[in-house]
Amino acid sequence: MSESLYERLGAEKGIVKIVDDVVEAHMNNPVISARFTPYLEQPENLAKIKTHTVNFFTTGSGGPQVYAGRDMETTHKGMNISAAEYMETMDDIFKVLDKHGKNAETKKDVLEILWSLKGMIIGK
């Protein structure tokens, strides 16, 4: 029996580390940093966003937790995220997955999730 994506991402502990690194990468990415750096002055909101993201990826990757946050369209409504911005977020995520030594199968599975969400996020 093969490991679930959740297990390959390092379970909850690994996903927390990945999310922390992805948020840091987004804050340092000149194309999208303006969307993320304001949260540095809102630590409670930043912690909440990270928690929701961890729960979302934990649930979506086969973990035991249940995501109870807002759906992607509601979360991103009014943000008008461009396709280029979305691609930058994906690039950051894959750089972090590489940093964490994730294999091609794991990255492919994450790509499938991210690609399935794009229509709920871009241009909303």
Features:
globular; 7 helices; 124 residues; Globin-like
**Order of H and E elements:** HHHHHHH
**Class, according to the CATH hierarchy?**
Mainly Alpha
Shape: globular
| Helix residue percentage | 55-70%
Total domain modules: 1
Low-confidence stretches: none
How many H/I helices? 7
The class by helix and strand makeup works out as: mainly alpha
How would you portray this structure in words?
It holds the Pfam family Bac_globin. There is one protein chain. The chain has 124 residues and is mostly helical. It is built from 7 helices and no strands. It is globular and about 40 Å long.
Detail the topology: elements first, then pairings.
Blueprint: H1 5-8, H2 11-27, H3 33-36, H4 43-60, H5 72-76, H6 83-99, H7 104-121
Helix pairs in contact: 2-4, 2-6, 6-7
Can you summarize this structure?
This protein has 124 residues and is mostly helical. The chain is built from seven helices and no strands. The model has no long low-confidence stretch (mean pLDDT 96).
